Structure formats: C-alpha cells, structure tokens
From TrEMBL:
Pfam families membership: HTH_1, LysR_substrate
Key word Glycosyltransferase present: no
Domain HTH lysR-type: from-to ranges: 3-60
Name under which the protein is recorded: HTH lysR-type domain-containing protein
Keyword field contains Zinc-finger: no
Function: NodD regulates the expression of the nodABCFE genes which encode other nodulation proteins. NodD is also a negative regulator of its own expression. Binds flavonoids as inducers.
Species, as recorded: Bradyrhizobium diazoefficiens SEMIA 5080
Length: 297
C-alpha cells in the first residue's frame, strides 16, 4: 500500500471543508483531480471514507478514525521538509571537527565568534588535540574535518593550506625588542629562549632547517604546550620560538612577534578532510568562514 502525501492532503482537506470543491481550491488542483485522489485512497485503504450526495460530502466512521493519523503524518512530513531545508541552508545542524591545540587557542576563537553570530542555531563540537593526533583522530572519529599544522601527504586525505605563520621570536613589547624588525637565528642564540620539545612537529621543522645550514638550537627552556611558552615569555623568562599566528593578541597583549631570518621558516595551518566524504551543510558553512577569517584582510 503506497499512500501518498497528495492523497492525504486531499483527504484532510475534504474532511475539514466537507466539500471536494473547496478542498480542491485550497490545494490548487481541479475538482476532478481531488475526487480521483480520494477514490485512489479509498481503494488502497479498502474502506469508504466519504458518503457523497449532490448536496454534501459526509465523512464515514473510517474517515473519523483516519483523520488524526493523516494529519500527524502530514505534520511529520512538513517537519522533516523544514528540517532538511534548514540543514541545507545551514540554519540548523551540528558541526564536529578537530583542531590542533595551537590553532584552537590562537586562530579559531575569532572564527568561532563570527560563525556563531552568523549561524546561532548550529551546534559546534570542537575537539582540541595535539597536532600529531589530528590525522588518526580524524580517521577514527565522527569529526568531519580537522584544522591544524601537518607535514607531508596522507592516504585518502586532502590537505588545503588556510594560512601560513612565520617562525618568529615572541617577546615582551619592550623598547629594544619593539625596535627590531627581525632577528637572525644567530642573534637569537645569544638570548634566553623558550622552544617546543624535540618531539613536537614545530621543533622538528626548526631543527631540520637549522641543521641544513650547520646551525643548532640550544634553548634555555623546552615545553610541550604553546600556551606554556607564551605564559613564560609574558613573565620575562625568554623569547618564545613560535609561528607568529600562534600568538593570540587578546590573551597576551604585552607580547609581540618579530620574524626570524637566515633562515626564514614558515609553518602552514591546514584544513584536512577525508577523501570521498561530503561535508554537511553546517560543516561547509564553517569551513567557508574559516577560509575567509584565516585568509586575513
């Protein structure tokens, strides 16, 4: 039995108006089309729904029984249609994604704020993880995409660079430090420094680039978390060696970044997606916002 929504609309219309003519007018169809829909529904259900005369259309007991169920089915279909339309237009839904700790702290708060203002009814599930965990967690969880710094290529993954950060010396905005336009790595070696530990991707990239020029980084302190390095720098313990994009100005207003040169090293922040997986409309809207905000002015 394949009862259609058109048949249910015709049935509820006739039931309410007690007139095939008025119901047809409400539905925007001809009287004969409305009558045919009722006949088809009666045949499929195996019951008579209306007693017809030249003057009136009266519902049967079967119609009385069927009316509320028909209205509920139509309401469910309308609700589903509205929900799908809201999802398609990114007015509702949920977006779950991964972010490296540095990106989550320094770059994504502004993206989140702008996205929330534009899409207040979309649920956001951001999971901040270590950069090394981005790919395995993206493969193993329901996250739709990831944002962070990765190197190389990964099977069945697409990687799109959203922005690049210049490796910089980050320090307190003193007169002497603010007056510098840049620092060389040799100059930096004469100052107290705070670097990421050797097993982190940032440090590996630094050591590889410096090693190619016969240089070596010997920091005063080594830490695991970017925010730890910035907090120590804010206390005057040394210059943090980080991408300039990892400095959240609102959180650390006393700190400034000066690019490191000879060699200059850049680090990308990328969007990772699984190949062959279509992002939900909510996720597509978030990614579009991230592209716009991270691209800068």
């Amino acid at each position: 039995m394949n009862v259609t929504l058109r048949q249910l609309r015709a049935f509820t219309g006739v039931y309410r108006t007690r007139s095939i003519t008025r119901a047809a007018r409400e539905l925007g169809i001809t009287q004969s089309a409305a009558s045919l829909l009722i006949q088809q529904l009666e045949t499929q259900l195996g019951v008579k729904l209306f007693d017809r005369s030249t003057r009136s259309v009266q519902p049967t007991l079967a119609a009385d029984e069927a009316f509320h169920s028909a209205e509920r089915m139509l309401g469910d279909a309308l609700g589903l249609s509205r929900r799908m339309r809201d999802l398609a237009q990114a007015r509702a839904g949920r977006v779950a994604f991964l972010a490296s700790a540095g990106a989550a702290s320094a770059l994504l708060p502004l993206v989140l704020a702008k996205f929330r203002a534009a899409h207040p009814d979309i649920e956001i599930d951001m999971r901040d993880v270590a950069a090394d965990d981005l790919v395995p967690r993206l493969i193993a969880t329901d996250a739709e995409f990831a944002i962070g710094s990765v190197e190389g290529e990964f099977a069945e993954m697409t990687i799109e660079t959203l922005t690049r950060g210049r490796l910089s010396a980050i320090g307190r905005s003193t007169a002497d430090f603010a007056a510098r336009r840049a620092l060389t790595w040799d100059e930096l070696a004469q100052l107290p420094t705070i670097a990421m530990r050797r097993e982190t991707r940032i440090r590996m990239q630094i050591d590889q680039a410096l090693g190619a020029q016969g240089k070596h980084l010997n920091p005063t302190y080594e830490v695991t978390l970017i925010n730890t390095a910035l907090a120590m720098t804010a206390q005057g313990l040394g210059l943090a060696i980080l991408p300039a994009t990892m400095l959240p100005a609102d959180q650390f207003p006393t700190l400034i970044a000066r690019p490191l040169i000879r060699p200059a090293i850049t680090r990308p922040v990328s969007l990772l997606q699984r190949q062959g997986r279509t992002l939900s409309p909510a996720a597509q809207a978030f990614v579009a916002m991230a592209r716009t905000v991270l691209a800068g002015p």
